[in-house]
Amino acid sequence: MALRVVIADDSLLIREGVARVLAEAGLEVVGRASDADELVAAVAAHAPDVAVVDIRMPPTHTDEGVRAAREIRARFPAVGVLVLSQYAEPEYVVDLLRDGAAHVGYLLKDRIADPADFGAAVRRVAAGGSALDPAVVELIVERTVRAEQRVPAPAATTAPDMEQVMLDHAVAWAREHGTGVAREVGSEFVAVLPDGRHERLPTFHEALAWLEAHGSDVV
Hints:
single chain, alpha/beta, Rossmann fold, 2 domains, six-stranded parallel β-sheet, three-stranded antiparallel β-sheet, 8 helices, rod-shaped
């Protein structure tokens, strides 16, 4: 038994051309539609194996075909959807694949010219597979690579603040030994009391004087 197909395209010439190619491929066209509403109604009436849908249809000729395809996938999950487009538009492919890759296809209209290849794509979609135009797949890969190249590399781990490390070490030492300590930290000297209070001073002697003024033994 031949696979049953519904065709949707607002151009009568393209509809009949697609129907002729499908017939040559051994498929049965059971319905034709000129807009998205007619397409959904035809799918409901004829229960085809696959709906072949033009991506641009009335009234806006933008993405009606994609939206109709997603509606069909939601309402009639057993029906495959093969979207046809004049141009490679990866964003629409990504939109179609949001609901999974089973029973879905996206081909450029140039592919219709070969009945054997076009028929094979329709059969693959009907069987639960996918049929994505190589030109569209190539664009998706290129965009993905470019996007990854634009992502800034992770920031290098910030090196520890060595002055802070030295200060923390001096505070810990003073607490452990219960006495004041004077240590060189960077271009200054720090005087540290056992209770953690500390002061940065320009010279070692000033650090010692600060400790003595606060009544601490000095090491």
